[in-house]
């Protein structure tokens, strides 16, 4: 006897019972965000997620799930986490679950100018020109640069190791509102 794959059975049952299979939830403006590549890095935002959103507002975007916040942990966990289809992104919250920063740790999300993790300093300078403050060296191997619009920020952490042959690529991006990004990787 031939066995049907599990997915085929689920689809058939959904069709027969009139149930719809879950699909990505559209955001408030109607766009569907399915992966990190669909997230635009903005001043104080990453796609529809915005710094300052409450836990409830963030969950309503369909991009996050709940996570237990443990303030005593060495690596403080956020009260929210991106759903598993979103790679190379992190969220930091306060104890109530309000978003305090959104982070990009690998390729995927891009700014309106196409800047992403892996872009180099020349790309950032060409895109943001005089709006870019920095880069400023923070240790022998890294430098930071920032752009700001009103009270919202995009911070770039550059690999500035003079022994590397690569020209200052971005290794980390953090967006905040109200205060400049710290650009420090936790654990």
Model description:
With 187 residues, this protein is α+β, with helices and mostly antiparallel strands. It has one domain (36-177): protein yfey like fold (Sandwich), CATH 2.60.460. The protein is 14% helix and 29% strand. It is built from three helices and eleven strands; from the N terminus they run αβββαββββαββββ. It has helices at residues 6-17, 55-60, 121-128, and strands at residues 41-42, 45-46, 49-50, 64-66, 80-82, 89-93, 99-104, 133-139, 142-149, 152-159, 170-177. The strands form three sheets. A six-stranded antiparallel beta sheet has the order 6-7-11-10-9-8, with no helix packed on it. A hairpin with a 2-residue loop joins strand 1 (41-42) and strand 2 (45-46). The longest helix has 12 residues, at 6-17. It is globular and about 40 Å long. The N and C termini lie far apart (51 Å).
Short précis:
With 187 residues, the chain is an alpha+beta fold. The chain has 3 helices and 11 strands, in the order αβββαββββαββββ.
% residues in beta strands: 25-35%
Task: Count structural domains.
Answer: 1
Number of strands: 11
CATH topology: protein yfey like fold
Low-pLDDT residue spans: 1-24
How far apart the termini lie comes to 51 Å
* Shape category: globular
| Global mean pLDDT | 82
